[in-house]
Amino acid sequence: MRMPSLRHASGIVLLSLVCATTLSACGIGRSDLEKWVAEVKAKPAPPLEPLPVMKQFETFEYAAQNLRDPFDQTFSGEGASGPRPDPNRRRQTLEGFTLDTLKMVGTLGSGNNLTGLVMAPDRVTYKVVPGNYLGQSDGRVTGVHEDRIDLVELVPDGAGGWLERPAKLSLDSN
């Protein structure tokens, strides 16, 4: 084992003296700090703000048991006698597609006996006559013409009823 050199030993002694001096300096101003803390503790605390006065609320008795439930889905609103989708009607194939994805590609027949040809996104062409349904808004075909297919869709009016909205599929000129 090697002995530490004199230079190394004097460095350790010097470091010890610096640490001792620093620690003793921390205690010099301690009495002033203790005096200030004692003075702050001796001062009276500022008064607390008073609690806010609670307002007295009027009681309310809900007495609308005989009125219409606003969340009742069976309520038909103002349009009770107007058009309504038939929930029991069997859905047709073209009702599985949105109207903007359907494309009129032609007609068969002539005069009043026209049958529309509609291509769906599945690339299948379907025959359409008045009375058929297409699109997802209960769109009923009302007329087939050489350049278009007219239909009427049922859309909610926002008040529990339904509105009829005319729509059409035009023959694509491309």
Give a structural overview:
With 174 residues, the protein is α+β, with helices and mostly antiparallel strands. It has a domain at 94-170: SH3 type barrels (Roll), CATH 2.30.30. The protein contains 2 helices and 7 strands. The strands form 2 sheets. The chain has a 4-stranded antiparallel β-sheet, with no helix packed on it. Strands 1-2-3 form a 3-stranded antiparallel β-sheet, with no helix packed on it. It starts with 5 loop residues before the first helix and ends with a strand. The model has no long low-confidence stretch (mean pLDDT 82).
Element layout with pairings:
Layout: H1 6-26, H2 30-42, E1 103-108, E2 115-119, E3 125-128, E4 133-134, E5 139-144, E6 148-156, E7 162-170
